[in-house]
Amino acid sequence: MAETTRSAKLTIDGKEYDLPILTATAGPDVIDIRKLYADVGVFTYDPGFTSTASCDSTITFIDGEEGLLMHRGYPIDQLAEKSHFLEVCYLLLYGDLPSTTQLEDFEDRVTAHTMLHEQMHFLFRGFRRDSHPMAIMVGMVGALSAFYHDSLDINDPWQREVATIRMIAKMPTIAAMAYKYTVGQPFVYPRNDLDYASNFLRMCFAVPTADYEVNPILSRAMDRIFTLHADHEQNASTSTVRLASSSGANPFASIAAGIVCLWGPAHGGANQACLEMLKEIGTPDRIPEYIKRAKDKNDPFRLMGFGHRVYKNFDPRAKVMKQSADEVLELLGIEDNPTLQVAKELEKQALEDDYFVSKKLFPNVDFYSGIILEAMGFPTSMFTPIFAVSRTVGWISQWKEMIADPQLKIGRPRQLYKGAELRDYVDIENR
Ligand code: CMC
User: Fold this and answer.
1) Where are the alpha helices (DSSP H) in 210-315?
2) How far apart are CA 181 and CA 422, in angstroms?
3) Is 231 helix (H, G, I), strand (E, B) or coil?
4) Which atom of ligand 1 is nearest to the CA of 236?
5) How many other C-beta atoms can be found within 10 angstroms of the C-beta atom of residue 275?
6) The whole model's pTM is what?
7) Core-most of 165, 240, 319, 392, by most CB within 10 Å?
8) In this predicted model, what pLDDT tens digit does every residue of 311-362 receive, in sequence order?
9) Cβ contacts of 139 within 8 Å, gap of 6 or more
């Protein structure tokens, strides 16, 4: 983190304090308040962390005003078009695009770890068949720490690397098994001659009586969905992973914490909620009614797949996703898909409405992804698990960066206490 000679002045009760300003490579600089409490005796107040940088990072950057997302400096639209998921994983994890040999070696290592410990199959059977696959994923990913004892020591770089590869390799297997379990079909083992996306599609859709012919266009679309969700700087689930692991918790448990946070409808759960909303709207003539509800402060309803904490412009991922939706639906011969028509018309009407324009609310990554996933054959309950598979590499990259940082401290926010002042305990008969 580059320090500069610039500083900010803070005046409290007539006394002036200098606070250093740290310079960012891109985006806002930050006022360094690390010594604020020690020197001044006050905390800062920022619920929801709207103005607080919780760490420095070299992985991902979002320019919300411009609608730019870049990983290690490369814009997401170029990565979505020219790269593929495992190459993006390498980039996020190690900082640079791989050479051919480095990529082959990385792909080999991931491929060698796709199977789950056989004993874990029995754990699935403990869940109810109608469990949400996210509930199963939370349990199974946490349970990895009970099966892979040789990669739990976060202070050993080799064990961190093994845990990294294991999670990237096993996450599609766990998600696919969660799906198979909930539809009552036998698990399909991974096949290491297939690429990452094709293998995932096959594990979800093959059955013992009929293998699944992987359509290369669908597998490319699946890979692109993984790529578009791979990382997103300090979002809620990533911050959860950082906070959970700052205590020294093992990597599998920390990633399970990220999955929990992702599940919520304001975050990764929005893709499921969005498709359900589009289906509920059903036909374009009902759109004005839903836009009216979204604008009504007395109605908790929000347009799902719309708005973002950081983007005040088009989410660049949504642009690629919209194009991908058109391609996939055309391939499958369902261009006149009514849900896509509702989505496009809803986007158009919202972007012409002063409420959404003035608040800079644009479609986000979750707006079109569900339409593609549904067309591929996934039920809505699998949308967020697929997000979790994709985001695992982001969580791990950020976790590795944090653990390697010599400044690492346990994450421990402060508070503005508004409760009762000190008082004496009152015996129950006197209350
Ligand atoms: N529909 C209607 N109004 C909205 C929406 C929406 N989708 N999003 C924000 N607003 C309004 C909100 O009511 C508020 O109005 P006011 O200033 O009058 O109180 C204003 O816009 C700012 O919203 P906020 O809730 O203060 O903003 P935030 O940064 O805390 O929330 C968000 C960001 C993504 C949680 C929110 O936009 C939202 O709930 N969107 C719908 C859920 C969604 O699509 N989430 C996926 C996000 S992208 C993928 C991911 O992160 O996983």
Assistant:
1) 216-228, 236-245, 251-262, 270-281, 287-295
2) 53
3) coil
4) 51
5) 26
6) 0.94
7) 392
8) 999 899 999 999 998 889 898 888 788 998 999 999 999 999 999 999 999 9
9) 123, 127, 256
